[in-house]
Structure formats: structure tokens, C-alpha cells
Design brief:
CATH architecture of the largest domain: Alpha-Beta Barrel
Number of domains: 4
CATH superfamily of the largest domain: Glycosidases
Number of helices: 12
Helix content: under 10%
Distance between the termini: 32 Å
Largest sheet: 13 strands, mixed
CATH class of the largest domain: Alpha Beta
Strand content: 35-45%
């Protein structure tokens, strides 16, 4: 059964479609209008932006992200558009842009609306509209680190102005300006008066602007600094950009209002516990009596399970906290498998029973235990199958809308992912609700990262002068998101030190939340309730559950070794799982001068201080096109385990690894395949396997005759019927392939073919018959020509190859020099001896002994065996590999063929690329494609396109000429429509590599594992010598033995 090539061929079509539907064009690379002349009167703003003692001013205490409405009915809509007391600040603002604080004129904060200023729409990042340049930093800061100093010359300042529409209905209320996310530090001025200041760029900030409002002609101004002293606390691996990037709006709230609430939930037996604290604030100048607080709880918005009203009095200018406890019988628990939601209605009423304020909030019930070595949710052992997620869009940068987030959540669930680490900051409030609805656990992380300073041995966690900064940033995260039951664990930040400031922040959360674990990782050390690790190397024995903060990295062509890590996690109860870095790339859609789209990374905006390609870590491209690595993760995270009990009898065991029952939604299928062609299939009828249980099934594949030499595989597939947006779909949730033992094939009868002739000249040997003609270059000991039907098959000699184009992980681990050492070694052979043996009636042998100039001279031997059937067996033998510190990056053969050999077919793993440490989940099968389709432009050119566990591979012309490679055992193979060395010779983007008039063929015994970018730093030889045997044939298919016969028969003659 042939499977047509690679789904990535549609990548650019998807890119174009997405570009068309986005709100703005591809990011601009030119600067629009800036002010570059220094004013006579210098800046008159407070120096908060460079004063570490001031993190905020005039900002309301952080609270839960509930939406207040004037009625319960409007609260149910969860749409501010229905409220008369909400005004969006999204849309056009007038702006002026300055290259540094010294260029900002004095009292600009007091200037009236200036119609001569340009206009720009927000939410947006101004650099993507041509105003300044985005800068990507993986580690460090986008400016020279000198804490707490902030650069003056490059610290751009954006001044925004907007008129305010204040309704007369609002006069009796307090008016708040709410900004859900602004980068970076910013002042808020209303009618020329300072209303507030904030430095936490990922926090929702509210400012009470009522004291500054006039009866009419009101104006709000924002003065945004790209960098401040706070930048030292936000040293994240992400792009640096400026702007209002989340929603902003005005809220008019009653003087007496719901200030905050904390809905603590737990499960005891089959009973749900709601412990609700509600804070009420009275900002009026009068006392109120007989006020009512009504709390209702609904299941699925319609079934009321709790209703209670309490009455209270509250004094003027005061706050009061009320506690209500509810016990819900037969509670439906929340988990990633069953994200059952309850709706919490809170109403504040006056003495007459009139609603003053109302809100509705999504909550859930679950229990969490982590005191022992195991991590339990709802009393069941949890395995976190997570990814690391940044907020990023390939066109709008930081700005992501609800649909984009929902698409992320949906794709994650489709790929068996059940958890997300919010990296490295609290994300858009909408994301938490979406994750709750889809069933995604979250590790929420405070916006606290001092990596740049730790790299200079400056640990602010031990500096008491910034204790309030540590504490406030953690409060901003916790207080906003405390009511989300899907927040499984809290992270105090990343690389922020483990000193007293960090411990103070830990104690704060523990005093507020005794249910969920709190932890932090810094410089590979862990503190808190969980042990956070990156690899097996830094796990210490202890009594706490272990969570892989970074389970593996998919930098460039990466994610190697995840299979081993996940097997270890799956088989050890104290390993709670972990997170793959990252979910998606942080790359921008960009255009060449000719309008061709490509993915841009650090340096593509002509900025010189970016960290280049380290933003390319995703399981998906930035426009959410899946990479091959996602398929691997999907397979590993399957909620089913299928194993063979007795292959000969067709007995298999299927285990349901779910923690909860899902009913009759799974279908179980089996398929028998011969050499890639499906010959029999069926369904396991009436099969139901409850959570945690296993059953034995039988596949009857002995009812047909198995052909000698053929390979048979059994594929067991499990799919799930799920409802999404009102439509049912079938999703593959489990897939496992088994290979049956194979009998030997029939030998080729060489006497049926014309005998070979051989002649020697000074520098060459010619071997031929009526089927083919071979030329050997005696100076190099290589096959330099192969002619079949008067057509030359080779453009370059078939030569040994030890080079692999450096991957991102290779470069990150400083292995480029070692790799490049091997780049031309295949051309530096020193021939020691060679001999031609023509005395055998069925074949001719040519034997070459040579040396390679490695660290010491490595003996290498080539044995060529030429058959009359147009079959050539190539054997490579290398001895004394134990003299090397590391194996060569690759061991195999490489040659180029004319591009007319463009149809590629192979029997091995596919259809996506695979490698020795990243291949499970890609099935052995028969696949067909074209060589040109293998040129899938990588973001940064590097090793690509490999196929693992290949039995045979062929290249064919439209006229029927072909060359086939078959292995004595499985080998690695690749075909690329260009010279392979282009991948490692300075091309910056994959689209820069154009197809050549030749196709490169690589046939490999070995290459370095891809690794995870952290632990795969050495590749010592596992044996003293290697033998690699491959068979090439140009024989017509009609005369050839079937491909699955491989080469056993030839090698035994």
C-alpha cells in the first residue's frame, strides 16, 4: 500500500491563507516615523522606570480575573459588549515615538490631543509595523547588562493619546482603566495627571482614574518605555517588543462592589467542597446595611446544585470578607479527561434586593496530592504529557486572539497532550478558561526571570532591597489565576535564584493555597514541593515527585531521546511527567524582495543583538503546521499501551492507560501488511476496556500463506469518537506496529545473465555486460560511473561520507568544529592497496584498503562485488574506532544522480523524516514521493529528511530507468534535490536553497542521534569496528527479484 509523500508540501499554501486572514500584513522591516532631535526642555516624568524601589504606583491590588456586570443575565454572556459600564480602549490611538528618554519633550504627558500625531491600532506590537525593531534573546538582555542601569540611547519611548468617552451614567461610580498586558514599563496619565505606573509587563493592571476625570473632554495618555530596571527581572527567551498587546478597557463599578473572591475547591469521597471567600469593598462615603451576597452554583449552566444568600452591613471606606462553604454531593470532578465545569454565580445586592454587581466564573472540583513520591489527581496517579507554550503569532507577535488560543488547545488534545507550562509568565486571561474547557493542566509561572544577572553571578534572590519585587510578581500571578482548578502547580519563576526572596514568595502562596504544589527551578537546581529537573543527570533521591521542567527540546531538527525519557517516566511512579520545549516556533512570516514568504528569526529585522535561531524550538511551526517531532510525541503520549504476547499466535495485549472511564467511544482495528501492501484488516468487535485495565486480543494472520522473503507487519489502531464544536470526529489516540519474523528470500540465479567482462586502464577499471557498465576510479578506489541503457546514472562518484550538516542542537553544544572536521574526510582517503578478483563465475570482486586521516590513521576497507544481474554489493569496513573520542557524525555513502531520477519510493519508516532517536510512531511502510517534495524549507538549513529503518529505496525516471538500494539489514537513507553540503554552508533560510539539476542520495549505516540539546554531548564508539553492506541494482523491475529479498542471497554466494 503506497502512501503519497509529505503533507508539508502544503506549508506555503497554509502560510498564504493565514496571511490573508490576519488583521495586519507581514511584519515590516522599515522604520516609519521617529523623533530624533533632542528637545530644549527634557523629560519631566518621574524616574520610576530606572528606580528599582518603584515597581508600580496607583495600581489596584491584583485580583481574580472575573468580569463584573450590572445584572446576572449580562454576566452569563461573559461579553463586556453587553454592559453599559464597559468601554473598550482597543482601536486607534494617536502616537509619537522617540528613540530614547532624552528625546522626550518635557510635559508631554500634559499636552492635549495632537491631531498631527500619527494613528495606530492596538492591541499590536509597534515594531511589527515598522516602528523600531524586534529583538530575540534566548539568554540575556537586548541591551548591555549593568544592573540596575537602563540604556538611554536605545531605550525607545512610545507616547499614546486617546480621548475618553465617559457616560453620565458613570458619575456615581468608580472608573477604572484596565490594561491586561503592556510591554514594558508604562505611565498612565489622565487629563495630564499621573494616575498610575506599572512594570510587570505580563500582569493585568487596574488604575482608579475617577479622581482625574472631568465632566467632558477627557483624555488618557500612556508613556511606554521599551526597557526599564524591571527588564532585569524579565529575561525570558522571547522577542522584545513594545505596545499594548492585550485587551484594554474602562470599567465603571459601583462604589460598593465585589473586590475579589477565592473559590477553593476539593474532593472528599464523592463530595465536592467549595470554600468561598468573597471580599466586598465600600468606597462610598456612607455606610450600607442589609446588603446581600447571593452565591449560586450550577452544573452545565442549568442545574442548580447550591444557592445561599447572606446579609451583612458594611461601613464607609472599608472592606469586609465573607465565607461560604458548600458541599456538593456526587460531584463531577474536573480532570484532563473529563473537564466537567461548574458555574459560580455571585451577586451583590442592596437592601432592596436590587443587583449592584454580578459575575459568573467557571470553576471545577478536583483533589491534588503530592506529599509522597507520587503525584495524584483525584486519587489517581497522574502523568503530565506537557509542552511549553509562549504567547506568539507569526504576524502579530505578542497579540493572540481567542480563536488562536482555542486552536492551540484543540491541537494539543488531538495530539494526546494534557498539560502546558506557561512559559515564562502568566498568559492572557482567556487562555486559562480555554484550557479549563478543553481539559489542559497548567503550570502557571510568575513573570520573574533573572537569567542575565545569574550568568554574571548576581543573585537578586538574596538581595533584600528587591524582596517586594519578587513578592509582587508572584502575587500578580497567583491572585489573578487562583480560581482555576486546572492550574495544577505554581512556579515562582525561572532562573530567579533560590535565596530568601524566592522563599518569601513561596511562603506567600503556601499561606494562600495549601492544596497545590509550589516550586521553582534556577540554574538546574530546584526548590519547593516538587523536584524540577531537565534530565536524569540532575535527579537526586528524595521523597518528592519529580517533574521534568524541560523534558526535551525540539530546537531545529531535534527532540531526540524523548522515547527513552518517556519510558523512564512511564515506568516510575515518582516521575510525574514533564514538558517538551516548545509547543510552537517563535518565528515571523516575512517576505523576500520578490514577495516569497519565509519564516524569519533573530537577525532578520537587521537587528544585530538577537540570538539568531534559538526561537525555533517548536513541535509546530509558528503558523501551527505540525513537524515530524509532533508525531513522535503524539505516539508516546498515547493513552493506550499495546504489546505482543505471542507474535506467532497473533496474541496481543491492549491496556487502557486512561485514569477515568470514557464509555463506548473507542474503536479497535487491526491490519496485516505484506511489504507495505495491506492484505487483510478487521475490527475487534464488542471490545470495551475500562480505565486501568487490559485485555488480550487475537489477530488471525495465520489463515494465509506467508511468502518467503516477504516482511509482514501488524498494525493495531485505536481511534476515539469525540464531539467538537457540534461535530463528531474520529481521532487516532493509539497506534502500534509489530514486525513478524521473516524467512529468507530466494537467491538470484546469476547464470541467467550474461557474464561480466573487466578491463583495466592506467587509472580506471571497467566492468560490464549487456545490462550495465561500471567504471572504477583506481586513484580513489570509488565507482565513478554507472551506465544503464546508455544513460549515466551517476553525476558524482559513490564515495564514503562522514559529514552531517550541523543541527541547531549541534551548534548549541559547540560541536560544529568537530562536525566540520569530518566534512571532507571522505575525499582524503589514502589508498594502501587494491585488487581485482575475476576468478569467480558469478561475480567480480574489487577490494580497496585505505586509511582516513582522523585523530590517528583509521584503516578503512571497501569491498565491491559486481554481479551479472546488474547488482552491486558495497561493503564498508572501518577498524580501530575505539581510538576516537567520538564517532563520526555520519558513516555511509553519498553520491549524486541526475534530477530526472525524481520519483522516490522506499520501504521503511515514513512518510515523515525519522532518526535513530526519534522514529517510534512513524510506521514501517511503502511510501512514494518526488525528490523535489523532500525540499521542505527549514527555518534554518540543517540536517533534514532522513528515513530510518529503511529496507530499500529506489529512484526512477519517467522512462523507467531506476536505481535501487537494498540493505543487508535496515539502514538510513535520504534523497535531497540539491547538493547536501548546501545545508551546512552559510545559507540563512531554507527557502534560499534551490533545487539543483542533481539529486543527492545518502545511504547510511549510522549518524549521531539528534539529542535534546542538553545531555547528548558525546557519542563514543560502541564497538571497535563497523561493517556496512548495501546492495545497488539498476536491473529492470520486470527482471529483478522483489525488493524484500534484500541481499542475503548475494552475500552468501
Amino acid at each position: 500500500m503506497e502512501k503519497k509523500g509529505n503533507p508539508f508540501i502544503y506549508l506555503f499554501g497554509i502560510m498564504c491563507l493565514l496571511t490573508t486572514h490576519c488583521k495586519q500584513d507581514v511584519p515590516k522591516q522599515t522604520i516609519e516615523k521617529i523623533v530624533e532631535s533632542k528637545p530644549k526642555n527634557p523629560i519631566t516624568l518621574p524616574n520610576y522606570w530606572k528606580d528599582p524601589k518603584v515597581m508600580e504606583f496607583g495600581r489596584e491590588a491584583p485580583r481574580s480575573d472575573f468580569k463584573p456586570f450590572e445584572t446576572t443575565e449580562k454576566a452569563q454572556s461573559q461579553s463586556f459588549q453587553s454592559s453599559a459600564y464597559h468601554r473598550s480602549l482597543n482601536g486607534f490611538w494617536r502616537y509619537q515615538y522617540f528613540t530614547g528618554p532624552d528625546y522626550v519633550p518635557g510635559e508631554i504627558e500634559k499636552s492635549p490631543i495632537n491631531i498631527n500625531w500619527l494613528e495606530k491600532s492596538f492591541p499590536s506590537c509597534i515594531e511589527l509595523g515598522g516602528i523600531g525593531k524586534p529583538i530575540f534573546k534566548n539568554y540575556g538582555l537586548p541591551f548591555e547588562s549593568n544592573y540596575p542601569q537602563v540604556p538611554m540611547d536605545s531605550n525607545t519611548v512610545l507616547v499614546l493619546q486617546k480621548p475618553l468617552d465617559i457616560s453620565t451614567q458613570w458619575k456615581s461610580r468608580d472608573v477604572f482603566a484596565v490594561f491586561e498586558g503592556i510591554s514594558s514599563a508604562y505611565f498612565v496619565y489622565v487629563n495630564g495627571q499621573l494616575a498610575g505606573y506599572n512594570e510587570d509587563s505580563k500582569a493585568v493592571s487596574e488604575f482608579n482614574i475617577s479622581p482625574f476625570l472631568k465632566d467632558e473632554n477627557n483624555m488618557i495618555s500612556l508613556i511606554i518605555f521599551r526597557w526599564s530596571d524591571a527588564s532585569y527581572f524579565e529575561s525570558h527567551n522571547m522577542w522584545s517588543m513594545t505596545g499594548i498587546y492585550r485587551n484594554s478597557y474602562l470599567l465603571a463599578r459601583p462604589k460598593c462592589r465585589i473586590k475579589d473572591f477565592y473559590a477553593k475547591t476539593d474532593v472528599q469521597g464523592n463530595q465536592g467542597i467549595l470554600d468561598l471567600d468573597v471580599q466586598v469593598k465600600n468606597n462610598a462615603a456612607e455606610n450600607y446595611s442589609g446588603y446581600q451576597l447571593q452565591v449560586q452554583l450550577f452544573q452545565d449552566t442549568t442545574k442548580e446544585v447550591f444557592n445561599k444568600t447572606i446579609t451583612f452591613d458594611i461601613n464607609q471606606q472599608s472592606e469586609i470578607k465573607k465565607n461560604i462553604v458548600a458541599q456538593i454531593k456526587n460531584v463531577e470532578t474536573w480532570s484532563d479527561e473529563h473537564p466537567d465545569a461548574y458555574y459560580l454565580f455571585i451577586q451583590l445586592k442592596n437592601a432592596q434586593g436590587e443587583t449592584q454587581e454580578a459575575t459568573v466564573y467557571l470553576i471545577g472540583f478536583n483533589s491534588i496530592q503530592y506529599k509522597s513520591k507520587s503525584f495524584l489527581v483525584n486519587n489517581k496517579l497522574l502523568k503530565i504529557k506537557g509542552v511549553v507554550r509562549h504567547e506568539f503569532h507569526p504576524i502579530t507577535g505578542y497579540v493572540v486572539d481567542k480563536d488562536w488560543m482555542a486552536n492551540d488547545a484543540d491541537l494539543m488534545k488531538l495530539n494526546n497532550i494534557n498539560a502546558v507550562r506557561n512559559s515564562h509568565y502568566p498568559q492572557d486571561p482567556m487562555w486559562y478558561t480555554i484550557a479549563h474547557q478543553y481539559g489542559l493542566y497548567l503550570m502557571d509561572e510568575a513573570n520573574l526571570n533573572t537569567s542575565s544577572l545569574l550568568s554574571q553571578n548576581i543573585d537578586l534572590s538574596a538581595d533584600t532591597s528587591v524582596s517586594k519585587i519578587y513578592l509582587q510578581r508572584v502575587k500578580n500571578m497567583f491572585e489573578r489565576n487562583k480560581n482555576y482548578c486546572n492550574v495544577l502547580t505554581w512556579s515562582l519563576g525561572y532562573n530567579c535564584g533560590l535565596g530568601d526572596n524566592t522563599k518569601l514568595a513561596y511562603q506567600y502562596i503556601k499561606s494562600r493555597d495549601s492544596k497545590r504544589p509550589v516550586s521553582v527551578q534556577s540554574n538546574l537546581k530546584s526548590f519547593g514541593d516538587l523536584v524540577l529537573v531537565n534530565s536524569e543527570d540532575n535527579i537526586s533521591n528524595g521523597s518528592k515527585p519529580v517533574l521534568y521542567y524541560r523534558m526535551s527540546s525540539n530546537a531545529g531538527n531535534g527532540l531526540g531521546g524523548l522515547t527513552l525519557v518517556w519510558d523512564h517516566i512511564k515506568n516510575n511512579d515518582n516521575k510525574a511527567g514533564g514538558f517538551i520545549e516548545d509547543w510552537a516556533d517563535q518565528t515571523f512570516f516575512m517576505k523576500t524582495n520578490k514577495g516569497k514568504l519565509y519564516f524569519g528569526y533573530g537577525g532578520n529585522f537587521s537587528e544585530t543583538n538577537s540570538d539568531s535561531f534559538r526561537c525555533v524550538n517548536g513541535l509546530m511551526t509558528s503558523n501551527k503546521t505540525p513537524k515530524a517531532s509532533l508525531k513522535i510525541a503524539n505516539n508516546l503520549f498515547s493513552p493506550f499501551t499495546v504489546s505482543a504476547i505471542d507474535l506467532n499466535k497473533g496474541l496481543f495485549e491492549i491496556k487502557n492507560d486512561h485514569l477515568e472511564n470514557h464509555g463506548d467511544v473507542f474503536n479497535y482495528f487491526w491490519t496485516v501488511v505484506e511489504n507495505g501492501d495491506k492484505i487483510k484488516e478487521g475490527k475487534f468487535e464488542n471490545l470495551m476496556i475500562d480505565a486501568g485495565l487490559k485485555k488480550t486480543v487475537r489477530v488471525d494472520y495465520n489463515s494465509f500463506t506467508r511468502n518467503p522473503g516477504s516482511e509482514y507487519t501488524i498494525l493495531i489502531t485505536i481511534n476515539k469518537k469525540s464531539l467538537n464544536n457540534g461535530m463528531y470526529r474520529f481521532v487516532v489516540v493509539g497506534l502500534q506496529q509489530f514486525i513478524l519474523p521473516k524467512s529468507a528470500g530466494k537467491p538470484i540465479n546469476q547464470s541467467a545473465f550474461q557474464k561480466l567482462k573487466s578491463t583495466e586502464e592506467n587509472n580506471s577499471i571497467h566492468i560490464s555486460n549487456n545490462l550495465y557498465s561500471i567504471k572504477i576510479d583506481k586513484n580513489k578506489g570509488l565507482i565513478s560511473s554507472w551506465i544503464c541503457k546508455n544513460k549515466e546514472l551517476l553525476v558524482t562518484p559513490i564515495k564514503p561520507n562522514f559529514y552531517r550538516a550541523p543541527t541547531d542542537n549541534d551548534i548549541y553544544l559547540n560541536q560544529s568544529n568537530e562536525i566540520n572536521f569530518w566534512k571532507t574526510l571522505g575525499d582524503q582517503l589514502t589508498i594502501v592497496s587494491q585488487s581485482l578478483e575475476t576468478n569467480h563465475p558469478d561475480y567480480i570482486n574489487y577490494i580497496v584498503k585505505a586509511t582516513l586521516p582522523a585523530s590517528s590513521l583509521l584503516p578503512i576497507e571497501f569491498r565491491y562485488r559486481f554481479y551479472p544481474s546488474a547488482d552491486v554489493v558495497l561493503e564498508m569496513k572501518i577498524d580501530h574506532l575505539d581510538q576516537l573520542k567520538n564517532m563520526p557524525p555520519r558513516i555511509g555513502w553519498i553520491f549524486e544522480m541526475p534530477a530526472v531520477f525524481g520519483t522516490v519510493q522506499w520501504y521503511g519508516r515514513g512518510p515523515l523524516e525519522s532518526y535513530q532517536d526519534r522514529k517510534l510512531g512513524l510506521n514501517i511502510g511503502l511510501y512514494k514521493s518526488t525528490a523535489s517534495e523532500f525540499n521542505i524549507p527549514a527555518v534554518r538549513p540543517q540536517e533534514m529528511g532522513n528515513k530510518s529503518d529503511v529496507r530499500w529505496l529506489s529512484l526512477k525516471t519517467f522512462e523507467g530507468l531506476y536505481l535501487m538500494a537494498l540493505g543487508q539489514s535496515e539502514f538510513e537513507a535520504n534523497v535531497l534535490p540539491f547538493n547536501y553540503n548546501k545545508l551546512g554552508t552559510g545559507y540563512r533560510h531554507g527557502i534560499d536553497i534551490l533545487n539543483d539539476p542533481t539529486n543527492t542520495v545518502l545511504l547510511d549505516y549510522y549518524q549521531w542521534p539528534l539529542g535534546d540539546g542538553y545531555s547528548n554531548k558525546s557519542h563514543p564508539p560502541s564497538s571497535k569496528s563497523i561493517h556496512f553492506t548495501i546492495r545497488l541494482t539498476s536491473q529492470d523491475e520486470s527482471q529483478s527479484s522483489i525488493p524484500s529479498h534484500f541481499t542475503e542471497s548475494l552475500l552468501t554466494n
